């Protein structure tokens, strides 16, 4: 079987599948784990490939129990991966687990997704600062990895030194974010209504122009029919007039030889006997 090629510049239908499905096994394991086992499970899920959302795991009672006690750091680190950024980790390292290189890269990828929700064209300067990367080459490598991991879809603009994001992974949302999300959705609905109103106006204008054009065309066709009829009548009248005039003219007289004695120049000589 030939491998399926996927254009990473376009949104993929696998985006939601690749980010949600791998978490299920950890959710099932967490339901039967306690204490230390749950803490170790958190370490595994933070490093697991393809797992980029953690809200469902945070809702498991056995995981919630870790919020207080000896494994509070594990719970807080899981919370960081669900809602936080790499910069938050750097500013408060002592409050979190020490991350492995794989975990650091995952958190950097998630940070890119968060930045993409704020602006679709992210300057390299912002990314370098937020991700604590020292050079552009390493930054571009990280962005390319994020694209192939289905974290974002877009392209690098090396000339303008920015990444243009078409779509980004949806991260977990806190309860306190619900009002702002509702506001965004309300704004989107209002924008949709405005677009629909504009489309309706354009449709009405187009229909008006169409009807006007139809009436104009019908007027032209009627005018053509009238002109044709008028010309036909004129031609018939002219033919009729020319035919009647020919009958009133007298035909030229023909020379006739009847009743006339023909002249002759011949002379008759009497013969002498």
Structural class, by secondary structure, is mainly alpha
- The strands making up the biggest β-sheet line up spatially as 1-3-2
Low-pLDDT windows of residues: 1-20, 264-269
Q: What is the CA-based Rg, rounded?
A: 48 Å
Report mean pLDDT, rounded to a whole number: 83
Shape estimate: elongated
**Number of helices in the DSSP assignment:** 11
Please provide the count of β strands.
Answer: 3
Q: What is the first-to-last residue Cα distance?
A: 145 Å
Characterize the structure shown.
This is PCI domain-containing protein. One of its GO terms (cellular component) is COP9 signalosome. Helix 2 (23-31) packs antiparallel against helix 3 (36-47). The protein has eleven helices and three strands. The chain has helices at residues 15-20, 23-31, 36-47, 55-58, 61-64, 72-83, 86-91, 101-118, 124-130, 136-148, 178-248, and strands at residues 121-123, 152-157, 162-168. The radius of gyration is 48 Å and the shape is elongated. It is 59% helix and 6% strand. The longest helix is centred in the C-terminal third of the chain and has 71 residues, at 178-248. The chain is mostly helical and 273 residues long. A three-stranded antiparallel β-sheet has the order 1-3-2.
């Amino acid at each position: 079987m030939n491998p399926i090629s996927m254009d990473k510049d376009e949104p993929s239908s696998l985006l939601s599948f690749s980010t949600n499905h791998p978490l299920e096994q950890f959710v099932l394991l967490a339901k039967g784990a306690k204490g230390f086992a749950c803490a170790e499970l958190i370490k595994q899920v933070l490093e697991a490939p393809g797992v980029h959302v953690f809200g469902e795991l945070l809702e498991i009672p056995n995981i919630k129990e870790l919020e207080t006690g000896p494994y509070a750091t594990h719970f807080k680190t899981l919370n960081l991966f669900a809602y936080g950024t790499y910069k938050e980790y750097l500013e408060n390292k002592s409050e979190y687990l020490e991350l492995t290189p794989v975990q650091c890269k995952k958190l950097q990828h998630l940070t890119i997704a968060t930045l993409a929700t704020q602006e679709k064209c992210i300057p390299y300067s912002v990314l370098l600062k937020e991700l604590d990367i020292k050079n552009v080459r390493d930054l571009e490598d990280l962005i390319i990895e994020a694209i192939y991991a289905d974290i974002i879809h877009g392209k690098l603009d090396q000339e303008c030194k920015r990444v243009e994001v078409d779509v980004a992974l949806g991260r977990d949302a806190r309860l306190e974010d619900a009002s702002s999300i509702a506001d965004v959705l309300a704004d989107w609905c209002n924008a949709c209504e405005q677009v629909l109103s504009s489309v309706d106006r354009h449709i009405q204008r187009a229909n008006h122009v169409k009807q006007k054009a139809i009436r104009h065309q019908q007027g032209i066709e009627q005018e053509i029919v009238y002109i044709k009829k008028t010309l036909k009548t004129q031609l018939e009248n002219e033919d009729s007039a020319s035919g009647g005039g020919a009958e009133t003219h007298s035909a030229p007289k023909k020379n006739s030889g009847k009743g006339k004695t023909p002249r002759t120049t011949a002379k008759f000589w009497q013969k002498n006997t």
